[in-house]
TrEMBL record:
<dbReference type="InterPro" id="IPR004304">
    <property type="entry name" value="FmdA_AmdA"/>
</dbReference>
<dbReference type="GO" id="GO:0016811">
    <property type="term" value="F:hydrolase activity, acting on carbon-nitrogen (but not peptide) bonds, in linear amides"/>
</dbReference>
<keyword id="KW-0732">Signal</keyword>
<dbReference type="InterPro" id="IPR006311">
    <property type="entry name" value="TAT_signal"/>
</dbReference>
<dbReference type="Pfam" id="PF03069">
    <property type="entry name" value="FmdA_AmdA"/>
</dbReference>
<feature type="region of interest" description="Disordered">
    <location>
        <begin position="32"/>
        <end position="51"/>
    </location>
</feature>
<feature type="signal peptide">
    <location>
        <begin position="1"/>
        <end position="26"/>
    </location>
</feature>
<protein>
    <submittedName>
        <fullName>Acetamidase</fullName>
    </submittedName>
</protein>
Length: 382
């Protein structure tokens, strides 16, 4: 479904876009009016530029638009868009083909979970971006991320950073306030919500389906909690059209996601604007927030993930800024922070794939003067 910008307000209800959100799109300023909120320790910085959408496409979660557990190269695109178009995803599905419901016991959920050995995520897509080719980059700008009213955290036996420390599985449900700002963990413990998508991916180059649990140069199961509203993720295109998938909605998560789940949820209102950047030599996914650039690295262990992340940051920043690689190495040691994005371990899991260890390096924009800062940001969109 395509909606001309002049019809945004009229079509808001049909597109699953709230009136306030639709007005914001219809009157979007040349620069963003506010800075990123909620995720990690991102300090206030210059907001990312807001670019008016070309057309709006609406993709509803159905058995035709969702593939549970996999990124499937054989599936036809559910929408074909142009650079700058916005995709609205109303009422996305929770894990296991929308099979989880609030209050189900762990025993009741197990038959549902075990139907999907390739992975739990209800991945929606793919979205084809016209003219996208290997060697290009697709920017995924997070415009709107409002979760449904509930979520859960769970840990089957034999998973997480401590797979052998607990003798029974764990499951806890959460209800969110109407504003989707907070949830109560327990009496006296309140968690601020910072919704984001755990899976953001272009279709990998392989001609075979790839588990959504995995990650790599194409993106995938990144679980990067900084990707809240107002941020951008840059994904290197692996095959014609890019073929963008998303899934694994989270309401809140800590770095490392140590018991292997966040507050798992779905999105009541999700809007992502996609931009194609031609002939961009980015090797691995990058993210940009108002306050940081973020490099990612993957590996079989944390040592490998850290070195991959650091080499990625050095290569990218040297090219983007013109700095010598050893100077970038020094700057990364002085000013950047390297964090565990995902630490996973599965000794008795239902799933046939094991996520990579992932590390992300956060480079603060504040150390660069505005001229250099602009040059670096422009390099991601050249």
């Amino acid at each position: 479904m395509l909606i001309d910008r002049r019809q945004i307000l009229k079509a808001a209800a049909l597109a699953g876009i709230g009136a306030g959100s639709a007005r914001a799109l219809a009157k979007v300023p040349a620069t963003a009016p506010s800075v990123e909120k909620g995720a990690g320790d991102n300090a206030a910085g210059s907001p990312l530029p807001v670019r008016k959408p070309g057309r709006i496409h609406r993709i509803v979660s159905t058995s035709d638009t969702v593939r549970v557990g996999i990124l499937d190269p054989k599936v036809a695109p559910v929408a074909t868009i142009e650079s700058g178009d916005l995709v609205a995803y109303p009422n996305t599905w929770v894990n296991w083909a929308n099979g989880a419901t609030y209050g189900m016991s762990y025993a009741e959920r197990e038959p549902v979970r075990k139907r999907f050995p390739q992975g739990p995520y209800s991945n929606i897509g793919p979205v084809e971006v016209k003219d996208a080719m290997p060697g290009d980059v697709i920017e995924c700008h997070m415009v709107r991320l409002r979760p449904i009213g509930w979520g859960w955290n769970s840990a089957p036996k034999g998973v997480g950073a401590l797979p052998n420390d607990f003798d029974k599985p764990y499951l806890r449900y959460f209800q969110f306030d109407e504003s989707r700002k907070y949830t109560e963990f327990a009496p006296g413990i309140r968690i601020r919500l910072a919704p984001f998508q755990g899976v953001m991916a272009v279709q990998p180059a392989s001609d075979e389906p790839v588990s959504g649990i995995l990650s790599g140069p194409y993106g995938g199961n990144l679980v990067l909690r900084e990707l809240v509203e107002g941020t951008s993720l840059f994904l290197p295109v692996q095959r014609p059209g890019g073929m963008v998938w998303t899934g694994d909605s989270h309401a809140a998560q800590g770095d490392g996601v140590v018991n292997q789940t966040a507050i798992e949820t779905a999105m009541e209102d999700m809007q992502i604007q996609y931009f194609l950047h031609k002939r961009n030599a980015l090797a691995l996914p990058m993210a940009e927030t108002p306050s940081h650039w973020i490099a990612l690295g993957f590996g079989k262990n944390l040592d490998d993930a850290l070195t991959a992340c650091l080499r990625h940051m050095i290569s990218w920043l040297s090219e983007a800024s013109g700095m010598d690689t050893q100077d970038v190495y020094s700057l990364a040691s002085i000013a950047a922070n390297f964090r565990i994005t995902q630490y996973s371990n599965q000794t008795a899991s239902n799933y046939s794939s094991i996520p990579a260890k992932t590390v992300h390096g956060m480079l603060p924009k504040s150390v660069f003067e505005p001229r250099i800062r602009q040059k670096i940001s422009d390099s991601l969109r050249s």
